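Continuing the batch. This is chain 6 of the set; chains 1 through 5 are on the previous pages. Same settings as before, nothing changed between runs. Recording input and output for traceability.
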Amino acid sequence: MTEEEKVRKGHKSILASAMIAVFVALSVCLPELAAAGDLEPPAIPDDDAGAMYTIEDLYDYLDTGVAGAKRTGGFAEPVSGPGSTGRTLDEVHAKIAEKCITCEGTLTGTRWCDQGDGTVKDMITGLVWLKDASWGGAYPWWASTIEATNAHDRAAQLKDGVGGLTDGSVEGDWRLPAIWEFRSLIRGTERVHCSAWRAFTGLQCTPPLTLTFYWSSTPFSPWGYDSDALCFSIYGDGFAMRTKDNSFYVWPVRSDN
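Output for chain 6:
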């Protein structure tokens, strides 16, 4: 497989994951729109019965409450991209957040909700982050011995009464973020970076770069070895691949439960 094919495959996987996330969110918040009914496809794409709502229809429904109209006639390949009224999955995701995610705390800007219990909620993704990004310390992704603490175990140790938390969480609620979750921090509206900490404290922003990495939960083995994983840096504003025996910081995250 060529590098170009790998990139295309990765893009397809990201798009599929995003579409699944949108559908799940709609199922929870707006079940009347997203109800699946029969899991079997109604018809092949060329048939009228196979018509579906567009991404713009979903956005408009979230925005106005008015359902869109499915296309009529057989399926036809588009000859150009969407016009100026087209919507993206990111816009749909943000609109879902407006409808489904609430802040019970103090907003920093419009995105970051300090919940007053040691956590910060992202009003776009709904993820809940530990407010103190320095609590976890530095640990290897996987430790060299069974007895030693690794980054995954360290994140799972977090609970109510630890790390400044009064959120009622228990051991196992917290985990290492996936790389796409870290990416969400430094992209989009009111992104987090070393000159804008938003509602967080303890960000690792003191060079050199290698001392500012946070481990993600995402392994990465482009050459077939199970020795590497992806890490993230606020200071470097990006990602890197490092061997799992390196000790990098732990910044736990959990779902909004």
